[in-house]
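Handout, page 2. Input:
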Amino acid sequence: MGAPPASANLRDDTIVALATAPGRGALALVRVSGPAAAALAARCITRRAGPWPPPPRRAVRATLHHPDHPDEPLDDALVTWFPGPHSFTGEDLVECSVHGGAYVGPAVVAALVAAGARPALPGEFTERAVWHGRLDLIRAEAIGALIDARTTAAHRAALRQLDGALTRHLETLRGAILDVEALIAYEIDFPTEDDGPLPRARVVEATDAATTALDRLLATRPQAVLGQDGVTVVLAGAPNAGKSSLFNALLGESRAIVSEVPGTTRDAIEVLLDDTPWPIRLVDTAGLREAGDALERLGMEVSARRLAEAQVVVVCAETPDGLTAAVARIRGLTTARCVGALTKQDATPPHAAAALTAHEDLAAIVPVSAVTGVGLGALRDAVRAAVRAATPAPAESLPVVVQARHAAMLGTAREELAAFRAAWVEETMPAPVAATHLRAAAHALDELLGAIDVDEVLARVFRTFCVGK
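Output:
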């Protein structure tokens, strides 16, 4: 059998799931939501003092048990009752805070299923919150983005979306499009009013204002990608130039194989480092030289590809002359900003300051030792400065467009506004026909906000969530 149908057919039943990650831990949370939540929970819960259900939103101590074995306790837990609509899902909701571990949480879930609850689908609790008006779709997606956030920038963007910043901005945009539609409706419905025909320039001005606002929002999408995936910073240079040792030193752990044998690194090794203003995707590549065997040639191809993708390159060499040669070779493979790293300064005499004069292709030159740690802080600062120079500053006044779905719907609205403007200015079609583009633009924003009952969209969004959320 395939996946279950869209959960629109399942919203009237009561669901249960473990809302915390499985495995060993101090606590676990079991959620029950739906019209029969209180009745089903009553079959598995015995309060230590007082009747069931307890006062709303107050954690009480209770014994949990299987409905068929009330004399065999599963756990001594804290239980909280949230009557709808004042709950996360907008339905009656029971939360059981139980002891963590591999056994207790799943056993409590199994007991509640035996009492009549259905195991929840991924994201179904949040989906029900949307259906009951507790969250709009944009803020619901922010919960998933918050869970998936791996960096400070992604976390910050998800929190702003959860706070409703993007929702408010989209509602303003939608209002601007409806204002243009209202102008057209006036022209269609009242063509012979004493005020005369509607000035066409007024419609164009209003359309352009809405289009500009859409463009500004769409322009934040690359920043969202940077916040999620990081700025690509590639370590490059000749074989045995100390790249892998420097890579490990910058990470604080051994991730790349360090060897005195040239050509040890055959593939690119990368790791995501949280940093400000953007996370850094640090990449260690194979040493650049004339490749020998087929495997090494593949390594060279990977290095060239990663250099072409880089925003910043740390050029590694042991001497100023080696640095100059490495820069000359790397410049043919990338247009990224470059920072020079004079490596192995623990093993070679410190180079005179005169030998470290600024190179026209390098934003900075930093002597560094992966063994002693000398210069690592200065190198990090030089890389951060190069990242800031190579990438846009984070948007402060606008929420960023985090999800690809959001960018697609905004792009559709933008295209429809452009089609309307062209039709209106060139007068190639009657006003009622041209207005269909405005309606399509508003429809795209409605779908984005979840104002339209589109089960396929909701199923696609929420099935990427974890079970219990």
